[in-house]
Structure formats: C-alpha cells, structure tokens
Design the sequence.
C-alpha cells in the first residue's frame, strides 16, 4: 500500500504531466497556424508522450493499492512570439518538471519507499532526454529562424517524428 503523502504528490505530478500534454497540444496548434506542419507534428508527438507519462503514474498508484484523484488542468498559453520563443518556453517548462520529479524522489527517499524510488528512476532518465531535445531544437531554431530554406528543411525533418509509447515494454 502506497503512503498517502507519496500518493498525493504523484497525483499532483499526474496533473503536471497532463498540463504538459495540454501545453504541447496548444503549441502544436500554433505551429499549424504558422504553416510549420513538421514542428506541429513534433509537438503533437510530445503531447502524446506526456499523456503516457501521466498514465504511467496513474497505473502505478493503482498497482500500489492507492487512489488516483484527477484535478483540473490549468489554462495554457495559446501564442508565442516565435518558434524560438515556443522552444524557450518548452525548455523552461521541462526544467521545472525535472525539479518536480526530483522533489518526488526526495519524498520517496524520506519515506524509504524503495518501490517508488525504482519507479521514479524512469522519469529521472526521461527528463535528461526531454531537456536535451528541447535545448537542441531551441539552438537550431536560433541559428536558422531568419533563413526560410533552412527552416523549411528542419520542418520537413521534424515531420518524420513518430510516437512510440516508451512507458510500456516492447512486445516480445
Ligand atoms: Fe513528462 O516530460 Fe515533459 O513534461
């Protein structure tokens, strides 16, 4: 049975993951409106990933005999000054999520909840990748945003990103 404080903090994180999903879905809409379908696709895949991050926690609380309590999703921005501005917001947001995951890990250590420590390790690794991806695209955008041909090429490249649910083990 999961400790109630741990359960409540994971419930808060489910909300944060679903909020992330909503943010990236909003960015996907904005990139579509800016005629950058590849970036819109990248953000749409990001939205799908965030939903799986929340659902992995949702399943975990139940596996540990706890209660999932869903909360309202706060509103998100719907417009950004530029692509680089959207990716700056993405990077800042992912850094914040990393600190939230670290906070959950602190609680798990404090409670000596070894199962949750093990569970959260997946998110610690995932956040390294999330920050690196956002930073990489932000740097590229800063370099090419005023160069339509390069922007077009990067947009085309990002249109190939496909969604893979990394929270479930691949089928044997
Ligand atoms: Fe769930 O990794 Fe981004 O927020």
Sequence:
């Amino acid at each position: 049975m999961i400790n109630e404080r741990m359960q409540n903090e994971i419930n808060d994180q489910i909300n944060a993951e679903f909020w992330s999903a909503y943010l990236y879905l909003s960015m996907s809409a904005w990139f579509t409106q800016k005629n950058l379908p590849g970036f819109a696709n990248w953000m749409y895949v990001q939205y799908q990933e965030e939903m799986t991050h929340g659902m992995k926690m949702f399943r975990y609380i139940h596996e540990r005999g706890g209660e999932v309590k869903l909360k309202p999703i706060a509103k998100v921005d719907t417009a950004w000054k530029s692509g680089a501005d959207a990716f700056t917001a993405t990077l800042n947001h992912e850094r914040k999520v990393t600190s939230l995951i670290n906070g959950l890990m602190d609680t798990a250590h404090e409670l000596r909840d070894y199962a949750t420590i093990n569970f959260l390790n997946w998110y610690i690794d995932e956040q390294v990748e999330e920050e690196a991806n956002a930073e990489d695209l932000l740097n590229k955008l800063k370099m090419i945003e005023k160069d339509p041909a390069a922007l077009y090429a990067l947009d085309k490249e990002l249109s190939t990103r496909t969604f893979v649910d990394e929270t479930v083990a691949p089928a044997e």
In short: The two ends are 30 Å apart (CA to CA).
